[in-house]
Amino acid sequence: MRLKITHRTEYRYDAPLSYALQRLRLCPQSGPTQDVLEWSLNIEGATQEAQFIDGFGNDTRLVSIEGGQHTIVLEASGVVETRDTAGVTGKHQGLAPLWLFGQQTPLCTVGRGISALVRDIAGGTDVERLHALMNEVRERVAYRIGATDAATTAEEALANGEGVCQDHTHIFLTTARLMGFPARYISGYLRMDDSDEQAASHAWAEAYLDGLGWVAFDCSNGISADHRYVRVATGRDYRDAMPVMGIRVGQAQEELAVQITVEQ
């Protein structure tokens, strides 16, 4: 499937910014499930200081804001050709060792809820157990925007019984790692069947299985990633793969507007 994506992020401030620094992971790369045919990143009101591939293999840009800017606009756009591989991404590659994806993180730390969830996963093959985990997370945690935030942990989201794709993914990652599977966070885009306009970017998980390699599980939709998914960044959890993160100096209040379209 050929997908055209536009992701526009606009920051407005009620006072000049003395300084800000942002890390951007907004540029997908070609791989086993996709070919990036064209892509651009336009930046207004900020200056790109550096571009590099981070330890997880993500295209990463650093941009700075200085000199009294009131508005910053980031627009990533392009065309990606995707392939349906039944969720299989393949063998492990990159600088980050496989064992790193088996470790806990502050957002993915095992507690009583995750420990209890593991005990409820039925037996079977590794693939069957991970599909059962995906379905169990979807059943226990209802999708509701605004129920959580970027700092919500897997344990907190599971206890609340509400969250978004980020929370579903963190719960899956934490539990899969407890089950003995390396697991990683994927951020990107999903082409919805009923609308080109998207409320936000998407997130899902991948678990590593001997003989298959990395396999994708989207708890929010109850499926493995197919040709409607575009991968952008990966990491141990959301903080390693978040599209935009940064710091700013000053007392200015921030207003954020995001517009995303994913069309065939």
Automatic annotation (TrEMBL):
<dbReference type="InterPro" id="IPR038765">
    <property type="entry name" value="Papain-like_cys_pep_sf"/>
</dbReference>
<dbReference type="InterPro" id="IPR002931">
    <property type="entry name" value="Transglutaminase-like"/>
</dbReference>
<protein>
    <submittedName>
        <fullName>Transglutaminase domain-containing protein</fullName>
    </submittedName>
</protein>
<dbReference type="InterPro" id="IPR013589">
    <property type="entry name" value="Bac_transglu_N"/>
</dbReference>
<feature type="domain" description="Transglutaminase-like">
    <location>
        <begin position="157"/>
        <end position="221"/>
    </location>
</feature>
<dbReference type="Pfam" id="PF01841">
    <property type="entry name" value="Transglut_core"/>
</dbReference>
<dbReference type="Pfam" id="PF08379">
    <property type="entry name" value="Bact_transglu_N"/>
</dbReference>
